[in-house]
Amino acid sequence: MGAEVKIWNPVEVAEQARHDYASQIHPSHLTIDPSLELPQMTPLVLKLCKDMFKAWSNLDDSCFVVEKISGGITNLLLKVSVKQENCIEETITVRLYGPNTEYIIDRQRELQATKYITAAGFGAKWLGIFGNGMVQSFINAHTLSPSDMREPKLAAKIAKQLQRFHHVEIPGSKEPQLWNDVWKFFEKASVLEFDDSKMQKTYETISFKEVHDEIVELKGLCDLLKSPVIFAHNDLLSGNIMMNCEEDKLYFIDYEYASYNYRGYDIGDHFAEYAGFECDYDLYPNMNEQYHFLRHYLKPERPQEVSEKDLETLYVEANTFSLASHIFWALWGLIQAKMSAIEFDYLGYFFLRYHEYKRHKEKYFLLAQSYLSGCKNEMSR
């Protein structure tokens, strides 16, 4: 059985949202155990919906249909349809957070981001909040597959949407969070103890002194690139991109990791996700595929007018910061190996991502150093 831990006070969150969010956010103190099977979970979901939305409070249970959309690595998505007189009147999405995810995800930061991202017209509309999740409008679209992202027309659409996303304004600190988050993960990941002796033995093969030194070296190089700070999604894998082909509309969803961050990191992290669920990093986009994406990101309306210098700058940024993506998600995997109840080889995921970092380190360090040397020579002319 999973935990039913409240990760925030729903009434306080809804009250706070009233001051800076156009629509009313409906609160409920209820929580739902995400580990339950759908038949056991359904009555609890109906109770939540009736508690949250007073217009539904007297409806018969037969008016509701609950379906599982997806079970992500950190949360569960449910679709709830409300029928009256055999006609679907409304459909919502219930997002249930998995146990212990607040150990990895800053939920207050996520809430702040969700409020303003949805107000800016991205993703689903925020409707309600409860003890261990939130309720949003239903997006009538399909989730992309990893192979979809490399299709030229879709890649251009994603690039254009990402450029718009990067211009969202979120109140508060605009400090980039990458290295803060990496060091937080490092601190947590380096002091774990596993009950399983085999996992503990595998964990003990990791040299955290080496990982520490790699982070310091990589940060030093990335800082020299002076990548612009923008508001970033930070987890733009195929599962967080949805497409409605009939309306030709693209959506970015799931803002659990969104924060102010480096432009190069958000794009490099997205490129790393071309590897897909099988983690086949040979699918990482080649230079031509990257340039196609970067042209549409830099000048969405006139991609062919992008200068070679601007292309090179962003290409170097993205590929250098893709190394930081490997470090970030490798450390994330270690923490999840200890905290998550989901059956997934998180420990193996650490080694997979860290191996990719080491496999590409020399290539991308040389790329960045050559670029920086060229910039220095230009300035001295």
* Tally of discrete structural domains: 2
SSE order in H/E notation?
HEHEEEHEEEHHHHHEEEEHHHH
Q: Helical percent range? A: 40-55%
| Average pLDDT score | 91
| Uncertain residue segments | none
Strand content is: 15-25%
Number of strands: 11
Query: What is the CATH superfamily of the largest domain?
Result: Aminoglycoside phosphotransferase (APH), C-terminal lobe
User: What is the correct CATH architecture of the largest domain?
Assistant: Alpha-Beta Complex
Largest sheet, spatial ordering of strands: 1-5-6-4-3-2
User: Which descriptor suits the 3D outline?
Assistant: globular
Oligomer: single chain
CATH topology of the largest domain: Aminoglycoside 3'-phosphotransferase, Chain: A, domain 2
Protein name: ethanolamine kinase
Keywords: Kinase, Transferase
Pfam family, one: Choline_kinase
EC number: 2.7.1.82
Overview features:
381 residues, 12 helices, Aminoglycoside 3'-phosphotransferase, Chain: A, domain 2, 2 domains, alpha+beta, 3-stranded antiparallel beta sheet, 47% helix, single chain
